[in-house]
Specification:
single chain, alpha/beta, nine-stranded mixed beta sheet, 12 strands, globular
């Protein structure tokens, strides 16, 4: 069965209150058309999880600006003034997670682990409400895994089965979040025939990809 779908079909898999993992670093590597499809669908009360909320008009910024998001889990929000404004006004819940801890929690979710142990945040506000475990005389925080209903990622190439490659820094969080959702959607720059991507070049294997978004040309 073909995994390729038009962008208009994405709305069938969206619902109010769902949790969405997104790739990208300040918008680089975030799938623009998928973000727009979520916005156009009208869904609301979303929990979105990723490194940052980019800018007001880039990355996942439009979802924040249009008040479709109930909660953000991210490493920083400083580049998006609207995220900060909504947080201070009590309109948006924001959970800030150290960047390395965030990606490892997502990795744990995708790997079926019960959590990770990290010294990051011990003795700080990050420790509040978390279990502290001592090993060999050193304290660690137990950080729980992160999973989501869907993941939206961007790739350079995708073959028709869903094997993916990435380009430069757009790779960032995308390969890891592909593991941690019930359904993963990829928006590639180009779709190629099976075999056009050499096995050694595959970063994300097809088994992790549920849907490939057709390009505007297709």
């Amino acid at each position: 069965m073909s995994k390729t779908i038009p962008i208009t079909a994405v709305k069938e898999y969206l619902s109010d209150g769902m949790t969405i993992l997104f790739g990208g670093f300040m918008g680089v590597g975030t799938p623009k058309r998928l973000v727009q499809a979520i916005l156009d669908s009208g869904v609301k009360d979303l929990t979105i999880i990723g490194n940052d909320t980019a800018f007001v008009d880039t990355g996942v910024g439009p979802l924040i600006a249009n008040k479709r998001v109930k909660k953000v889990i991210a490493s920083h929000i400083g580049t998006n003034l609207e995220t900060g404004r909504q947080m201070i006004a009590g309109e948006l819940e924001v959970e800030l997670v150290p960047q390395g801890t965030l990606i490892e929690r997502i990795r744990a979710g995708g790997s079926g682990l019960g959590g990770i142990l990290t010294p990051t945040g011990v003795g700080t506000i990050v420790e509040e409400g978390k279990q502290v475990i001592e090993l060999d005389g050193k304290k660690f925080l137990l950080e729980l895994p992160i999973k989501a209903d869907i993941a939206i990622i961007s790739s350079h190439l995708a073959d028709k089965k869903g094997n993916l490659t990435y380009q430069l820094t757009a790779r960032n969080f995308n390969p890891i979040i592909a593991f941690a959702a019930k359904k993963t959607f990829v928006e590639p720059q180009e779709i190629v025939d099976v075999g056009a991507i050499l096995p050694d070049e595959v970063v994300t294997p097809a088994a992790l990809i549920d849907f490939i978004i057709l390009s505007e040309e297709h």
